[in-house]
Sequence to fold (528 residues):
Amino acid sequence: MTRHFTQIAAGAAALLLASSALATAQTVLYRGNDTDPATLDQHRTSTVSEANLLRDLYEGLVTTDPSGTLIPAVAESWEVSEGGDVYTFHLRPDAKWSNGDPVTSDDFLFTFRRIMDPATAAGYASILFDILNAEAIAGGEMPVEELGVAAPDPQTLVITLRGPTPYFLELLTHQTGKPLHRASVEAFGDDFTKPGNLVSNGAYMLESFTPNDRIVMQKNPNFWDADNVAIDTINYIPFEDRSACLRRFEAGEVQICSDVPAEQMAYMKENLPDNLRIAPYLGSYYLPVKVEKEKLADPRVRQAISMVIDRDFIADEVWQGTMLPAFSLVPPGIANYVDPAPELDYAGMDLLDREDAAIALLEEAGVDPATLQIELSYNSSENHKNTMTAVADMLKNIGITATLNEMEGTGYFNYLREGGDFDIVRAGWIGDYNDPQNFLYLNESGVSFNYPHWSNAEYDSRMKAAAETTDLAARAEILAEAERIYLAEVPSIPILYYSSRALVSDRVSGWEDNLLDNHATRWLSLSE
Fold:
């Protein structure tokens, strides 16, 4: 009896030691993220911080490698029809959900139909309007069953487009192309995103979500490529205050900061030169204007405001040379566009001359600048605050009074999409795919990301014509015509072109700079 007990105790001790060793062997990464997500429903997300999380939780038909190059994912291969409008994807048989269920073509069929269903109210539905009948379905004009997506067998998915779309595969790397686990969505409804309910098919599973503290993800043992995933646990920490992330990075408490405080750029360049990562980024930083407001309805007023903004000062002094001055919405270097690209007429004009021209425009519009009061709203961030402070000072130079309104980051973009009551706000757009259409469609009537609620029939006509044009050179010129219409009315004011900025610990391997700033944790490893 005594001997038996001793053997059990010894066995228990051995198990405890083994368990302890396993726990010690766990690799835990602490990643700073811009803010908490408003949602983890990929059909209701819109921000980069949410995309960072969804990139670890889900995998679509295709994805990108560490360099940003498109590679197979759930689809191990595909064919494109001779006409370029039908894509046939063959799903890998070993793709599984985190609960062990196989990932099938029906999951993608369900997902694409759900995002187009008007009941979902998906702000990003328009990004997939290139799929046959998608726009009509989202507008409530056709049933979801008419969507150009079919699942002839569990391993085959066929997507029919309304016409050839040169960027369609790149588009599918976006979160709107990531599948949903149908059974859990139908069982839990909107609560399917909660820890314990969320079933994912990516490299990680959602463990917990504590607002304003952290989101914890665990490695998904059922992920088809789990053997090559080196990090076991991710702690995503929200940092609206970029300086707080910097402090915790220097203390060794965080290994990655997704953004950095621009006002401390000189300090980081001197003290953290090997950790500071600055790279070209496909994105624009701009100021949407509520054109429905009487005081801002006249394009001449909006042009006057745009003219007096010293973009060089903001890029060099506020952002410490990590951003570029912008006089257009479409960033430079983008594929499938004209050269030279359109820009505001006064891009090369001296600032003092621009101020004189702005005063003359206001006078022409019958507006006394001394009577014009503007509220500048922005989401919490020292960088955004400093930008808007600088803009307010510049408006004073021609007699316009501007006040600042700081808003909480969580829910900020929902507020903009839902028609919030603002004068001028800060916004940024990071390309979902390398094509000017992804930036210009923001201004189309009815698009949820058209924060100014600007509507221009000629602009919409040009965008529609571009969508129906298969010749890339002709299409580029049509898109340029659309941007010229936008620049003539500036419903939003382009300010800067982005660069990606991050802090990455020496302990992190696998981080490669890329144009879309995508860094899925599955590609990273962490040394002691």
Remarks:
- DSSP finds 16 helices and 20 strands in the chain.
- The mean pLDDT is 93.
- The first strand starts at residue 28 and ends at 33.
